[in-house]
Design brief:
The complex is a heterodimer of chains A (402) and B (307). Chain A is an alpha+beta fold and 402 residues long. Chain A is built from 13 helices and 20 strands. The longest helix of chain A has 20 residues. The two termini of chain A are 39 Å apart. The model of chain A has no long low-confidence stretch (mean pLDDT 93). In chain B, the strands form 2 sheets. Chain B has a 7-stranded mixed beta sheet, with helices on both faces. Chain B has a 7-stranded mixed beta sheet with strand order 9-8-11-10-12-13-14, sandwiched between helices. The longest helix of chain B has 18 residues. Chain B is globular, with a radius of gyration of 19 Å. The two termini of chain B are 21 Å apart. The mean pLDDT of chain B is 96. The chains are: A alpha+beta (402), B alpha/beta (307). The interface between A and B is large, with 54 and 67 residues.
Chain lengths: 402, 307
């Protein structure tokens, strides 16, 4: 789960990590009031969306697609400029390298005091899957795309893995500060900041904290100038406050609805809907559809113990997508019984008035009963023997290659 | 022989009094798994009826292992308590026997809980953790066998193919593919789809290489992380037995979590394309479609003089 920069900064501030003064705004009037209250001659007016590349993004009118302004993060030197930038940003569509062409409507702004920057660094805390521990990464090359730094000058990225038994140790923080070339007050300020950030990472079950840039000011203080923070959704049960931090407008409505019914759904661009049990098999089903010349419309895992009702919900979610021209159901029954799936498929087809071709492949527990139920129905359901057969059948039924 | 779990392994069920725990404990007993009892804090002294037999429940894993000399435990404890359940089992096995296998089925454990639990287990070299978020491990026998997890027992048969996979139902698919060419399995392990887990691909490959019953291996990966690439590089140096592979997620878009917490392409890393390439570079015969795993395996067996 991602949160906005302004929320991340509030979290950093509460954890004792230095950030600049800033105000979250949703209207131009609030932005002007923020400018007045901050008392800083220079302020940054920052679009708040859950995607990177905001500074180099472009704002468009959401309906006419008319070009409004270049740059979703602007530095304002006067009250008038704050007004112009806030007006150009709020309610408009911000397209960045990470949003795709459809962009995102900006509903939130962050107006932040300025500071005198001496140098920009990069800092990230995340979980290292391979070393099974928390990893802290830092670089002197801040403010730019870190993936490019990693590719072209990997020696400029410094890493420390935190031993889960020992925690983050003093020498590790000092070594990292030295590797960034920090000394004196800046060294001390950095050591304090990463200690606090690491504690915040643990206490809040973060999956990622990325500060790009982390800056050294001309008076040798370390400040988090940006904040990209995400949480581990598995830990939601122990963080009741996350419900308030969640911005549902940033998430796919249908994916949220699927999750509420215990389904895992991701929308894709193709035209063959799929309904599968198990994440690995659901991915493999998409892959095989593509292999035989089709394009999957979605990833959908109904989980290990779906009931008839969930199968029906899954069908209705798939059919909401106007691109769907056919559906492939692929079930390998384990705990899930094929006869239950078969009844669910028939129930859903009848109540939803399915009018696209449907191919069903069943295997595993109670497969014979499941096949018999489908065969006895008068509905237009095409049975398949295995995944390849199922994929070929659905692709040819919708007039594809196979 | 098989790996880690023998056919007659004695198994405890943690969370045996819960819905999931009881349902699957019953299925395991039905399959022939040697369940010796369960553990639920606060319910010690009670008993649980499975397949018409009565099984004791203990308050703690120390008691359960001391009383039964169990070889393994399987965890069906809900996510908020599962990390600690793993550590309790590891501590008890280590203290009492110096060894033991912990199979954690639970899905949805916070990643930082797993970072702590895995470090705790790794400090105890005799303890093996399989999972979490996995179907478990099964060693089929001539009759019955040891099924420790949630997989459908009836699709398996004893044989010489080892199977290791990140995914549940895709493992069943692989099992069905071995059966389609008349081959059974030595041991099948689901290592789970979480970003931080216990036993990995390399542990499994290394054990299969050393196991006299296993003559070939099916390895199934999925997008996310670099475990498949590391396993392929390791296999190239250390495996003499043929391996057949598949990787799920060629069509997955970057940045989207595909069901499993660990199945995500981030920063351009962890794609199926890279993993297939690593498999092929290591001489692993790949199927681009899991329905072809049987045919690819048959070819690999023939090429190695095993059929």
């Amino acid at each position: 789960m991602n949160i906005h920069e302004y929320q991340g900064k509030a979290l950093l501030r509460a954890s004792g990590v230095p950030v600049l003064e800033g105000v979250h705004c949703t209207t131009v009037e609030q932005a002007l009031a923020a400018y007045d209250s901050l008392g800083s001659k220079v302020v940054a007016v920052k679009s708040q969306i859950h995607a990177g590349g905001r500074g180099k993004g472009t704002l468009y009118h959401p309906k006419s697609r008319e070009h409004i302004m270049d740059g979703g993060v602007k530095v304002a030197f006067s009250r008038d400029e704050v007004e112009t930038y806030a007006t150009n940003i709020l309610g408009h569509l911000l397209v960045t390298i990470q949003t795709g062409e459809e962009g995102k409507i900006v509903r939130n702004l962050y107006v932040e005091s300025g500071c005198d920057i001496a140098h920009e660094y990069y800092l990230a805390i995340l979980v290292d899957r391979e070393k099974k521990s928390v990893l802290i990464m830092a670089s002197t090359e801040g403010g730019v795309n870190i993936e490019e730094v990693a590719e072209h000058t990997p020696e400029k990225i410094h890493k420390i893995n935190v031993d889960p038994n020992a925690g983050l140790l003093g020498y590790q923080k000092r070594d990292l500060a030295m590797q960034l070339g920090l000394s004196g007050a800046a060294h001390k300020s950095f050591v304090q900041a990463i200690g606090k950030m690491y504690s915040m990472f643990l206490a809040n079950d973060c999956s990622m904290v990325e500060i790009n840039p982390l800056v050294r000011t001309t008076d040798d203080q370390i400040l988090a100038l940006d904040a990209k923070i995400s949480f581990d959704e598995n830990a939601e049960f122990r963080h009741k406050n996350w419900a308030d931090l969640r911005d549902l407008s940033e998430e796919e409505e249908v994916e949220i609805r699927a999750k509420e019914t215990g389904l895992s759904y991701v929308k894709l661009d193709g035209n063959i809907g799929c309904l599968v049990n198990g994440a690995g098999l659901a991915m493999a089903t998409m892959d095989v559809i593509k292999l035989y010349g089709g394009e999957p419309a979605n990833f959908l895992d109904v989980g290990g113990g779906a009931n008839e009702e969930q199968v029906k919900t899954a069908f209705s979610i798939i059919l909401e997508d106007p691109n769907v021209k056919g559906i492939l159901v692929n079930i390998f029954g384990g705990i899930m019984r094929c006869d239950i799936i078969a009844r669910g498929v028939i129930g859903a087809t009848q109540s939803l008035g399915l009018d696209v071709p449907l191919v069903v492949r069943l295997a595993g527990t109670n497969v014979e009963e499941g096949k018999a139920i489908l065969a006895a129905s008068t509905l237009n359901i095409h049975p398949a023997d295995d995944l390849a057969d199922g994929a070929q059948k659905i692709v040819s039924l919708i007039g594809g290659e196979a | 022989m098989a790996i880690w779990i023998e056919e007659d392994a004695k198994v405890i069920v943690q969370g045996i009094t819960g819905n999931q725990g009881m349902f699957h404990a019953d299925k395991m007993v039905e399959y022939g798994t040697n369940i010796v009892g369960g553990c639920t804090p606060g319910k010690g002294g009670q008993s649980v009826e499975l397949q018409g037999r009565s099984f004791p429940v203990w308050d703690s894993m120390f008691e359960a292992i001391a009383e039964t000399n169990a070889d393994a435990t399987v965890i069906y404890v809900p996510p908020p308590f599962a990390g600690e359940a793993i550590m309790e089992a590891a501590d008890a096995f280590d203290t009492i026997k110096g060894e033991g296998v912990i199979v954690c089925i639970t899905e949805g454990i916070p990643t930082l809980d797993m970072v702590r639990a895995v470090a705790f287990v790794e400090n105890r070299p005799g303890i093996r953790l399989i999972g979490p978020n996995c179907p478990g491990i099964i060693t089929p026998g001539e009759q019955g066998g040891a099924k420790i997890g949630i997989m459908p027992g009836h699709i398996h048969a004893k044989g010489r193919i080892g199977i290791v996979s990140k995914s549940g139902t895709l493992t069943y698919e692989a099992v069905a593919q071995t059966m389609s060419i008349g081959e059974g399995q030595s041991t099948c392990i689901g290592i789970g789809g979480d970003p931080v887990n216990g036993t990995g691909f390399i542990d499994c490959l290394s054990a299969f290489e050393a196991d006299p019953q296993t003559e070939a291996v099916v390895m199934i990966g999925e997008i996310g992380g670099t475990a498949e690439e590391e396993a392929a590089a390791w296999a190239k140096e250390h495996m003499s037995k043929p391996i057949v592979g598949f990787v799920a997620g060629s069509t997955a878009p970057p940045g989207k979590r595909m069901g499993h917490a660990g199945a995500i392409i981030s920063g351009g890393k962890g794609t199926a394309e890279e993993k297939f390439a690593a498999f092929e570079a290591a001489g692993i015969a790949c199927a681009k479609d899991p329905s072809e795993l049987g045919a690819v395996l048959l070819k690999a067996l023939q090429a190695n003089g095993l059929r």
